[in-house]
Each structure stands twice: as structure tokens, then as C-alpha cells.
Amino acid sequence: MPEQEQWYWSLKEHRVVGEGEAKAEDRLGPYPTREEAAKALDHVQERNEQWVTDPRFNDPDEDDEGKDEDDEPRFRFDGSPIED
């Protein structure tokens, strides 16, 4: 049985590409159709909006974590503390 075609959105070329046309790190997908792949950025926007508005992803104290009273980060991106 032949493998089903999969389609991707190329983040570098800003177009729909097939399997093997772009490096995995440079694409979104896979999507089952070219049409779905063409809507990839819409899917990303929808997921971002869900993440921002979904209380499961937003703890009440989350905004205060990792910041001091001057709203400066206390931790580096790698998680190590910033010492004064």
C-alpha cells in the first residue's frame, strides 16, 4: 500500500512543500492536503490564541514568577540565576 502524501508549510520559502523539499526545522506540518498546509500559519495563530486564553496554560501567579520588584528577570534563558 503506497504511503500517503504529506504536505508542509516552508517557513523559509513561504509556500507549501512536499516531503523532503525543506529541512524539518524550517517547516510546519505535516498536513494531509496542500490546502491544509497552506493554512498552517492560520493554525499557528489559532493555537497561540488558545494558549493565551486557556486558563489551563496560565497560572494566576505565572506573571510574577522569575521577576523581581523592578520587573527584571531573575533567571537566564538556560534557567541559571542572575546574580547581582
What does this protein structure show overall?
The longest helix has 14 residues, at 40-53. The chain is 23% helix and 15% strand. The chain starts with 6 loop residues before the first strand and ends in a 31-residue tail after the last helix. The protein has 84 residues and is α+β, with helices and mostly antiparallel strands. It has 2 helices and 3 strands, in the order βββαα. The radius of gyration is 19 Å and the shape is elongated. It has helices spanning 34-38, 40-53; strands at residues 7-10, 15-18, 27-31. It has a domain at 7-57. The mean pLDDT is 82. A 3-stranded antiparallel β-sheet has the order 2-1-3.
What topology emerges from the helices and strands here?
Blueprint: E1 7-10, E2 15-18, E3 27-31, H1 34-38, H2 40-53
Antiparallel strand pairs: 1-2, 1-3
Briefly characterize the structure.
With 84 residues, this protein is of the alpha+beta class. Helix content is 23%, strand content 15%. It is built from 2 helices and 3 strands; from the N terminus they run E-E-E-H-H.
